[in-house]
Amino acid sequence: MSSHTETDGRLLAGHVALVSGASRGIGLAIAIGFAECGAKVLITGRKEESLRAALESAGSVHADSLHAVAAHSARPEDVARAFEEAERRFGPVRTAVNCAATNPSMDPLSRIDLAAFDKTMETNVRGYLIVAREAAGRMQRAGSGGSIINVSSVAAYRAVPGLGAYGVSKAAVNALTTELAAELGKDGIRVNGIAPGVVRTKFSEALWKDPAREARAAAGVPLGRIAEPADITGAAVFLASDASRYITGQTLIIDGGMMAV
Question: What is the pLDDT of residue 6?
């Protein structure tokens, strides 16, 4: 393990991270988890007011560890500006987490509006590539390696009614993860993914807000419940840290055992 973990008992002490799509839900939980483990974290999202609310929800204990920049992950100039702010405020970014996502249409793929499909792919795939490309270039120039983490979904592996375009985009994210891992390994940059099942977030509330629907969703999970955002945090901390220093090109499914049945 590197010396920064020896001088501070926290796993990510001295670490700088950037988390996209972190104004709420899984992205915010990961950012807070990183801060609790000693990292300095810049979070991004499209709306200033949502980011302000995110920082307030994180509490004063993380006031010195979290900073926010409004940025659209599918716009290269926004992403570059966010990385520049992270470097200016905290130092070189060692971990970049892609968590921005959208699902504007619940229509079957056979009838989906193409504009909605394009928007899904722009945010969920193109945006991930833009963030990863920016992170990789900066990590390569720094010459000290790093970690890129892509948040995928079990929808990449199993068809889910109403999530056709989303599932296609997340399957593409899995492919992006393996391709980037193969390309960047020589530079000491690890690229891995996390594929959650149903998580209690605003993004997925159609699947759990109604008690009967939540009960049906939980019934298919061996652990007997849907996930909370904090259930995803530990895997992200692991993949960001030196504890996973020989792991790359993998996507870890975090679904309470749903894919096992």
Answer: 43
Which residues are part of the catalytic machinery? 166
φ and ψ at residue 22, rounded to 5 degrees = -115, 25
- The single-letter code of the amino acid at 23 is S
Any domain includes 144: yes
* pLDDT tens-digit map of 49-90: 999 999 999 987 678 999 999 999 999 999 999 999 999 999
Residue 261 lies in a domain: no
49-86 per-residue burial string, b: 16 or more CB within 10 A, e: under 16: eebebbbeebeeebeebbbbbbbbbbebebbeebbebb
What is the number of structural domains in the chain? 1
CATH code at 72? Answer: 3.40.50.720
CA proximity to 133, closest of 148, 144, 122, 121: 148
pTM: 0.93
Domain hosting 70: range is 3-255
Q: How far apart are CA 23 and CA 175, in angstroms?
A: 26
Q: Tens digits of per-residue pLDDT, 216-252? A: 889 999 999 999 999 999 999 999 999 999 999 999 9
Q: Does residue 233 sit in helix, strand or coil?
A: helix
Of residues 236, 258, 249, the one with CA closest to residue 31 = 236
